[in-house]
Design a protein that fits this description.
Number of helices: 4
Strand order of the largest sheet: 3-4-7-10-9-8
Mean pLDDT: 80
Shape: elongated
Structural class: alpha+beta
Radius of gyration: 23 Å
Oligomer: single chain
Length: 245
């Protein structure tokens, strides 16, 4: 598509895309997806125990609504272990894209065996801070995990999600909690906390643009095991035979 044609489409349909985007109720799930990817990545870490065995380390979601002692008890957790908690998020003004432009893309629809033209507003630049908690009984085990975490960031770590395979994560701060007690009468544990900043984007709803110049439907890509399996449409026109409220 030529630049002049793109500008003409942008000018004509920008307001309509804004209207449809504002009315859209589909939630991307960017927070849930990013946390899931983080836990999956850090679940691959191992440590060498006192008998020289390579042991996989469990990584869990640090649920702030449940006491840590209860989580340890219910999940029968064997130390060392890591947990990840979401801290805060904020819009990144340094990575923000010019809001009045439209993003033009093409998807391949396996069902119709045709390319689909798609329009959307720019995604929102978002920073999310997470804290990786390391719990261990022995200093040697804690240090092994800390070394692996630092080695993984060179200087950034790619966090693959269904939205973006190149989402970047950066180490921020490290906090040494020393010896902590999670329950009265129990052995004290060693704990470290590492803050990680993730630079990602909140995807905007995507709309199908037909050859006849209509904005016909919201485009939803369905993924199976990380691969786009099919494309589904939520039609906007109530008179369309496939319209669903």
């Amino acid at each position: 598509m030529s630049t002049s044609a793109t500008l003409a489409i942008d000018s004509k349909y920008r307001e309509k895309i804004y209207e449809y985007t504002s009315a859209n109720t589909n939630i991307s799930g960017i927070y849930k997806e990013t946390l899931r990817a983080m836990i999956s990545l850090f679940s691959s870490f191992r440590y060498i125990d006192s008998e020289n065995n390579s042991v996989k380390v469990k990584c869990t979601f640090a649920n702030p609504e449940r006491p840590i002692a209860k989580q340890f008890q219910e999940n029968h957790i064997i130390l060392p272990v890591m947990s990840i908690e979401q801290l805060i998020s904020s819009e990144d003004s340094n990575r923000i894209r010019y809001g009045s432009i439209l993003i033009h893309e093409k998807y391949w629809d396996e069902d119709t065996q045709r390319a689909v033209r798609v329009l959307s507003l720019p995604p929102k630049a978002l920073n999310i801070d997470y804290k990786i908690n390391i719990w261990a009984k022995y200093r040697a085990d804690l240090d092994q995990l800390l070394e692996q975490i630092r080695f993984a960031f060179t200087p950034s770590l790619d966090i693959p999600t269904k939205f973006n395979t190149m989402t970047k994560a950066y180490l921020n701060t490290e906090q040494d909690f020393g010896d902590v007690s999670i329950e009265t009468g129990q052995d004290r544990l060693l704990k470290k906390g590492i803050t990680v900043n993730i630079e990602t984007y909140v995807p905007s709803p995507k709309f199908r643009f037909t050859n006849t110049g209509k904005i016909e439907a919201i485009v939803q890509r369905i993924e199976v095991d990380g691969v786009v399996d099919s494309i589904q449409y939520k039609y906007l026109d109530k008179d369309h035979p496939n319209y669903t409220a």
